[in-house]
Amino acid sequence: MLQNLGAPTFSKKGTFIMEIHDKVVLITGASAGIGLATVRRFASAGAKIALVARSADALNHLAEELKSQGSDAVALPADLSDPLQVQRVIEETVRHFGRLDVLINNVGQAAVGTIADLNPDDFRKILDLNVIGPLAAMQAIIPIMREQRGGLIINVSSVVSKMQIAGIAAYAATKAALNMLSDTARVELASEHIRVITVYPRSTTTNFGKNALGVRQQHVPGSPNSSDTPEFVAEKILAAALHEPDEQYMD
Fold first, then answer.
1. Which of 143, 155, 39 shows the shortest CA–CA distance to 99?
2. Residue 64 falls within a domain, yes or no?
3. Is 66 inside any structural domain?
4. How many domains does the chain have?
5. 242 partner at 20 to 30 Å CA-CA among 49, 98, 103, 195?
6. What confidence score (pLDDT) does residue 211 get?
């Protein structure tokens, strides 16, 4: 039997606080950047971690690092643009830990180019990863969370989804689509105690921009001049899991 998340904990001010210690947390894009920082932050809070990304070597090394520090972690390499692989890692997480309490849809990629010259194939690729992948993960985990009588889904979006920046409309559009999926799922699942949070990072000091598809010389979020560190964003993601606002911004 899958375990119940348990009764809510309340602070002295009456605000809801979720217990993270011993919760099973699946984090996508776990091998680098915001995902890696989030893995380490949740592990330090006592969570059991399912690590998901494409790089098997990086994930296995990270899992061994976490285990050496006393954390419970499992590496689950997968291409998250493939819904069948997404389904597999959800199922493998539940087989390994016996439950799955928190899903963090963090993985993402940018495609750059103005509307006039954007490569439609690049747009399709990031749609599969940034939108269809998280949707597949939510569809795989919702029946599990229903049986557990609750759970938490955190979708990592971007502030650019609420802006108009030349050259990154494709990426912003995928995150805007993810926002709408999150907003609607929040309403649809509220009565079943499945909570959905959207996190909005700003530009962050990662290799995100270097990994963008399309015209590389254009600016995309994640340049070395960005103001936030991955660790700062990870702290905000943990705060979102603890206090469960509908939306978590960086300021």
1. 143
2. yes
3. yes
4. 1
5. 98
6. 79
